[in-house]
Amino acid sequence: MSKNKIPFQDQNDQPDIAAQVVLPFKKSFEISLKSLKSRFLRNMVTVTSLILAVSFLAYVLVGADISNGLYNSGDPGLIKVLEKSGYEPGGSAKERWIVILSLLVCTVGIINAQLMAVTERFREIGTMKCLGALDSFVLRLFLLEASMQGTTGALLGSLFGAIIAILVGMLRFGFNALTMLPVDEVSMSLLYSIGVGFGLSLLGVMYPAFIAARMRPIEAMRVEE
Predict the structure, then answer these.
(1) Can you give the pTM of this predicted structure?
(2) What number of other Cβ atoms are within 10 A of residue 164's Cβ?
(3) Total number of domains constituting the chain
(4) Where does the secretion signal sit in this chain (predicted)?
């Protein structure tokens, strides 16, 4: 055998890297959707926690918009009722802290649920990596799943919160709460609630997704089901 054998990559003027197949975004979306359906109950827990947190945020924001609209109307009777109920122009610090704490609790819950999802899918992740899946592909799957959960939870939560806030306002102030409703401010509050909910979903999945993406195939396959 010749001692001057040229390495494989030098003989062909190519790096010694195996061919890789990059799946299109549509296929990644289909795999993520199938995964969500197969773990429907666990995913519903995550979505429900997000709905509750976003509902509370939307309820506070839309409720404040209703109060601001009534206060800006200049009606002495409505202003007196608002002052008796403890209304403060610009919102109270107590409400802001309650909203922040509820969102933090929601984020912790999402992270915990996603960590459990990663643990349950060790062998699945290992199988995908053995078949040639890149770290970016695994990361994309988890981010797509979180995006779908976040979109659903944020939309439903903001809608429920706004409806409840309007109904409560009508019970307290009658139809004035509806006729004097500042539509522009309510729309911004809903967009803000949806954005926060979607952002929380992505934030909660980032750490578990990186763990899944960086996992070595041999370690994942070693885990017993």
Answers:
(1) 0.77
(2) 16
(3) 1
(4) none
